[in-house]
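Predict structure. Input: Carboxypeptidase regulatory-like domain-containing protein, 269 residues.
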Amino acid sequence: MKTILFDASLCNGCYGCQMACKDEHCGNDWSPIAAEQPLTGQFWCKVEQETRGKVPEVKVQYTPVMCGHCDNAACMAAATDGAVYRRDDGLIIIDPVKAKGQKAIVEACPAGAVYWNEALELPQKCTGCAHLLDDGWSVPRCVDVCATGALTYVDEADVPADAVPMPAVAENHPHVYYRNIPKRWVYGVLVDRGANEVIIGTKVSLVDAEGTTVAEVDTDEFGEFRFKELDENAYTVRAQVAGFEEVVLTADTSEGDVVLGDIFLKAVA
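Output follows.
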């Protein structure tokens, strides 16, 4: 069984996979595998963009979402008359004739990867470019056009141990995996308000709820510190600079990344 593997550390957000999917399926009827995809309203490969943090520390994360061709496919369970079937290579196909009128197939997908074609009264989704594979291609179009290698087409047995199933359908055992999705982070800048200067080379500690120091970094030449790859927990940021009161700030990553911004130190009276 083949699997699409997405490596977030290699993605530059070019949207090439999304555009290639539209190019392959819009204006082209690949029956009996798929009817023509409409120009608007459907993205069988959809690149989701998430803006994380806030000014002055903002990062953008890109993640492609597509059909997982799940082992426990909700779309198959919702279909009647064999309208959704699994090929011998594992790809799940919505029959464009038998599926007509079966909107329940759309509603069943927990990832929102199945779309409703109003004009054709037909549920539609990624086919894994089955028509191309049948024609001798070794990979789907989205993988073929990925310029950075962020998308690859690998055997299930070769999926790296640190990769995780596509989260939206993880319980359904999809054949799309993600790796190197950035975890939470905490950012701040230590500033001497009186001298109007940043504090360079000061150790900053990140402490968990049990009082254990989980990470330490030194402020850089801009007075900045960053803690990366954090779990979703409540933390405390602590720093001590001679002549100033100790910095003790809450940094709870449970709801998202934490940007503390400029932290003005208070001189000891």
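Residues 16-25 form the longest helix (10 residues).
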